[in-house]
Amino acid sequence: MKVRKFLLHTGLIITILISIIFSALIWFNPAMLQHDSKETTNTGESTTSVSKRTLSDIFLPLQATYNVNDAQYQLPSSEDYLIGKVWKVMKKWNSVSTSMKSYKNETDYLTFLNQNNVLLLNYNSPITVKIFNKVFSQKIKGIQSFKFNRIMIPTEGSNYIYLMNDQSRKVCKVVVNNAKSIKKIQTYLKSNSVENNKVEIDYYLLNNKIVNFYVNSVQLSKYSYLYNKTNISSYVSELLNPSGQTSISTKLQKNKTIYLDGSDNRLTLNDTTGAVQYENYSALDYYDEASSGKIRTQRLNYYTHLTESLNQLNKIGVAPDNLRFDEVNSEDGTVTYRSYIAGFPIIGDDNYGTYKIKLMSTGGKEYNFSLNSLQVSVPSSQYKEDLPSTYTVLRELENKGYALSKIKDIRVAYKWQKNQSSSLVIDMIPTYYVYTDGRWSELDDLLSTN
């Protein structure tokens, strides 16, 4: 009798354990961990979330720096940590008037930039006042086409802010009604979480671009995420056959699959990396001039170029919550959106975490992105990566024979790396990236190949 009871209890316990294990497998499958969305598209194998992103989602500042006590610091700046809080305060301000000033040289501009007791919200590439008005709920008039890449906020109770353009060295002073709410920003800046995580920097002029240089070595955390690979069929139907009436042909080429709709649309998938390129070189929105035979072209102003690139991003159908406007290529106008982790971008080959939108003056367009996307963070070791100061990095590059005149930018960013223990997990490793020869390259790659 006792043996029978023992076996009964043992069998019950085993059954419960098996149920828990299978439930865990179901709940922690990355496909189950998609964010809620406004609508869904059936791909046949998986469901792709379609979440339309707005200007306020995408065009928030990327980074916060703080000048105090004759030193400059980079602050932790994820959306819901500091920048998001400051943004909510600024939305309640009312712009009153503006005035413009130009600085004659870099020295005078850097002196202004380095002044004490100011918080700076920074972009990598400029936005316009018109976009600022929409993102920050302001009504600045008369200068809506003015481009800037920094917002300077005095923290000692002044009733004005500055919109700064590093390239042109122009500064727009905006008088606002903010005397009371600035105290909230002061509280954020004095919090322990900001004080304990700020990192000292210099504003360094590198080939006519002001770059944050870390004064000392820094320690940054490694993160791990479950990831998902979206089925290519959702993009084929969305980009090549939205009406469901077009015949799609498929062509195999080495490690690539090419989808064609018989007209001007082409979708190319790298079967190994998951990188996707969509091309549409049609000029259907334009016409041939009868007198000259030339195709009429349209030059978009900067504001329209940025907002139209966002419209095209939404057409792709997937835009992660941590995606931000990152930069504009001055040569071909490509607008790049990147996923950000703890205030740092994901950079690397194969467009992981990246969407590139190229709009052409003849009406054509090109998208580059990846099928792979991060889902939710998973517990990982408290591993941190030690990174040298940026000055040390610059010396290492010089010693390896790289000409400083060819180095256009240096950033700390996260690289995408497969986890050795689980095929469902991606590790995000902090490292330096260097912009040279028209592309971003990881520092270790540059030092090992030259």
Automatic annotation (TrEMBL):
<dbReference type="InterPro" id="IPR009996">
    <property type="entry name" value="YycH"/>
</dbReference>
<feature type="transmembrane region" description="Helical">
    <location>
        <begin position="7"/>
        <end position="28"/>
    </location>
</feature>
<keyword id="KW-1133">Transmembrane helix</keyword>
<dbReference type="Pfam" id="PF07435">
    <property type="entry name" value="YycH"/>
</dbReference>
<keyword id="KW-0472">Membrane</keyword>
<keyword id="KW-0812">Transmembrane</keyword>
<feature type="domain" description="Regulatory protein YycH">
    <location>
        <begin position="12"/>
        <end position="444"/>
    </location>
</feature>
<protein>
    <submittedName>
        <fullName>YycH family protein</fullName>
    </submittedName>
</protein>
